[in-house]
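Supplementary notes for students who missed Thursday's class. We covered one full example, reproduced here. Read the sequence, then the structure, then the short commentary at the end.
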Amino acid sequence: MTSVKQVQVTFDCAEPERVARFWCEVLGYAVPPPPEGFATWNDFDRSLPPERQGSAFACMDPSGVGPRLFFQRVPEGKVVKNRLHLCVRVGTGLVGEERLAALEAECARLLPLGATRLRLLLADEENESCLVMQDIEGNEFCLD
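Structure (token representation):
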């Protein structure tokens, strides 16, 4: 039996490059180098048929540990809550006020990038506190 070696997370979106660059900032990810034979991603994009230009973009963890994120243009907008979301782990190992401070600090960093704060879920008997947010196209994610 083979085991999975890598995972890619794919986002449907209206503006792939814009959303990818947002997530690069959130996660400290980088845009991978353009395909062989192209100096830039813009050069590669211009080589595509007009209907495919701007249709996809990606970003990756520079350390190679985290999953590659892929963003693909789709014609429809987001209408309902995500069935899958990313949890950005900024409060791991922290509890109480220290955890809340870490979540709030990260939220403050992400708001100027275009993120939206939705709600703070306070700790209960089973879960630590987390902060629910949306990216620049309305996809939910948590600061955890």
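Commentary. Residues 96-110 form the longest helix (15 residues). The two ends are 33 Å apart (CA to CA). If anything here is unclear, bring it to office hours.
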